[in-house]
Amino acid sequence: MKSTSRANSNDLSYHCGRGHAPERMTAVAFAAFCLAAGLPAAAIAQEAQPAPAATEAANVAPAPEAVVAQAPVAQLAPAAPSAPAADNQVIVTGSRIRGVAPVGSPVISVTRADIDNSGATSTAGLLQEVPQVMNLGVSDSSRGQAGGSGNITYGSSVNLRGIGPYATLALINGHRVVAQGTTGASIDPSVIPMLALQRVEVVADGASAIYGSDAVAGVVNLIMRRNVKGVEGFVRYGKGDDYNERQAGLLVGHEWKGGQFVATFQHDTRGALSGLDRDFYSGDLRARGGRDFRSNQCQPGNIIINGTSYAIPQGGVTAANAGALVPGTANMCDNLKYFDLLPRQERNSGAFTFDQKLGNGFSLYADGFATRREYYLRRALTAANFNVPSTNPFYVRPVGAPAGTSETVAYSFGDQLPTNDASGFSRSLNATVGIDKTFGNGWKAGVLYTYGENDDQAATYLGLDNAAVNAALRDTNPATALNVFGGPNNPATLARIASDVSISPGHTQFQNAQVKADGPLFELPGGTVRAAIGVEHQRIETEGGQTKGPKLTPETGLVQLERKIDSAYAELAVPVVGANNMLPGIYRLDVNAAMRVDRYSDVGTTNNPKVGANWSPVKGVTVHGSYGTSFRAPGLTQVRGFANNGRGGLYVQNYSDPTIGGALRQGVAFNGPSDELTPETARTRSIGVDWEPKWGRNTKLSLTYFDILYENQITGSLSDLTVLNREAQLAGTGVITRNPSPELVAQMTRDYVVASGVLPATWTLLIDGRNKNLGKSQTNGIDFQASTRIVTDDYGNFGLGIAGTYFTKYEVAQSPGAEMADQLNLIFNPIRFKTRLSTNWSKDSWYANVYVNFARSYANNLTNPVQRVGSHTTVDARIAYELDGGWLSGTTLALSATNLFDRKPPFVNLAQSTNGGGGFDPTMTNPVGRVVSLSLNKRF
Questions:
Q1: Do residues 744 and 801 make contact, with C-beta atoms less than 8 angstroms apart?
Q2: Torsion of CA 862, 281, 274, 382, to 10 degrees
Q3: Between β-strands 197-203 and 383-389, what pairing exists: parallel, antiparallel or unpaired?
Q4: Which of 470, 285, 323 lies closest to 385, judged by CA?
Q5: CATH assignment, 49-278+342-378+423-461+503-518+530-642+675-717+772-939
Q6: What is the C-alpha to C-alpha distance for residues 505 and 513, in angstroms, rounded to an integer?
Q7: pLDDT tens digits for 526-571?
Q8: What is the pTM (predicted TM-score) of this model?
């Protein structure tokens, strides 16, 4: 095996003179070195276009030497000095200037080798392995935090730093694409199959000055494979306890003179994970030191009069055995145990990239994707609190209970009704085409156009029809009335009440047109000053609403929304000190400034600047810093909404209430339009240092301190079933109303005629779930990274690495008048410390990787006393062997295991809900457990 090492300066000078980059050095890095060394531009231009063979090697599954060259963990990409780029698509994240990495902001890069070695089965899962990414709000396992109420088709988004699922901008090949979800709120990264990815770049720093809205916490850029020769296919099967995964994919690439085309198709299937199959998921947590969070909506149920519960005996109760009803007794049951912790998902995806030189400096490029994801989710047993009038023929009043004309019965239909399951789909297509023109003076101008469409739909069938339920309870005929006192029911009656359908479609159309240019301005002693300018126009059209009601006569309401955005940006890169004018203590100094103006057709205009600097006091050490402002415009549906034709609706839900020890309290939430929303704003700062020591030629260490002040945050409490734990901070906002007056209840039922769930006879809790500009947060911490590579002649090649984030502050004000409160290391908030360690080894045709994932313990303040949740450590491992000889050449067999030691999630004393909980925290841990998989990859 070839021993790999970094070439010294003399070696590189030799290569610059020849015009060919040394092995394993990218064209951009090679060109950057030659420019910094003051070598002829002709040599740079010659090498800037990579040779086909070298390009191919960078894109296919790694050979043994390539694995050694790759970093063992997501790597912090070095900031390259100004350098001209090749005519083909060289995509840099965080800057609009070719050949210029984002000055002042480090780039975290997940390489193709990292992707191959990962145990993730989706791009969203791959990003979850990056320590800066947190699973809060929008994923298929966690919908209880900010943004979760809109994720009704169980998609995913990227949440950098944990400050919000919509505060991170996701790009594909450096440009925006159509958003997913019924509300078109965010990009699901899994629309790009993992087989189509060349790398993923993360700029965990504000970038609205470069890209516009949403880049508050940072930018994630999914960069697809180009310049691949041949065919690559793979199959994979993974198995866990009562769980399975299946994948297959095919990639075809072809190159010709001046052009290339790569097409990818991938099929992914994942089975559902039922709550019945995980013993740590339960409503009764007393055996583990927790509370009994089971429901009193059971079969048989409980009669409740003036707060006193009477358990209905097995077999039911009638007037003849009313004496069996004992005050202060209750039946308890675990309806949510039947709920799917993860829905069954199936996805088919395709993606392509295309490049063609047209002559006279013109080049054409295109990329796109199409994807369809379907899901199926088994929901909890149908249950509710029913207000039963005394005229009901089955009505029973407990002996000794105060007289009355009605009473409440907490009741579950159990297996009497079909399971109210949920299903739906998400399908997207998107294509971008652009033409660039390279001029003789080094400038390059271009235009691009993106068109995308997304359709999502969520549906539940055979839910309770409120009107039919109330009619059946008021029915005086024993043959047709509804019996909730434990006796049998007429099948025709059950069919009438379980006839509600709810279908929520959403359609988003996205168009983006850009005109851009970048190139050199003039020379300074430190190098060439370069600039980029551009204008951009976006048009977003979203249509959605709801079809709800009896399955034979449902009502449909659709809302059409439109937004236009006009933008202009400029960026300037200034190499103040370079190879020709270096000074003692200033080996290199680069400064970058950017500015962007965005004008929205509905929420006004915003201006956002950013400045950054890289200072190298000596070779191998770079100090970098940045300052800027960012923003996020409110989503179209956050302003107007879809539910009930944009008028909103009522939702009956169970809330964890700290006034009763965290037990569940039934409440009613409402949502509706929020016409007064304004953009969220942020101030971002960072400073850090990268060090490549001379004594460790394959070693790099990085530290970056970040500081994010995020204001005017849009918060909505529709899906937050723990909102009562912030009642003091939300005082005066009207979000929480206990024991609403009869007049307010009457107003709610009058203004919001559509209700999900059976409205209680007496309202003890009302939640305003509408979106409001209420929040403010301060986030500070340190990103760290270290990696090294050891090359030996006899024992193979070893890689070691660690990456992680340590938060020093996360303070939140829930409302404009509230004081900042420390939320760091509290449940459903960023935890203080999260890290990923890795090792890899390769020798001849063998490769092995081991990853250790660690998340620190944190506090569960949703229960009294506050619980300390244990830390969580999991180990992932992979071993692969590449076959050789004849038709087996290019074939790799791999055995992988995620959560190798089958570590269960740490115990969390938390009530069950349809958004997570029940003994574990779905935002921090995966309920699946160990998954062992076997894969086969073949290159032709």
A1: no
A2: -60
A3: unpaired
A4: 470
A5: 2.40.170.20
A6: 27
A7: 999 999 999 999 999 999 888 888 888 888 878 889 999 999 999 9
A8: 0.86
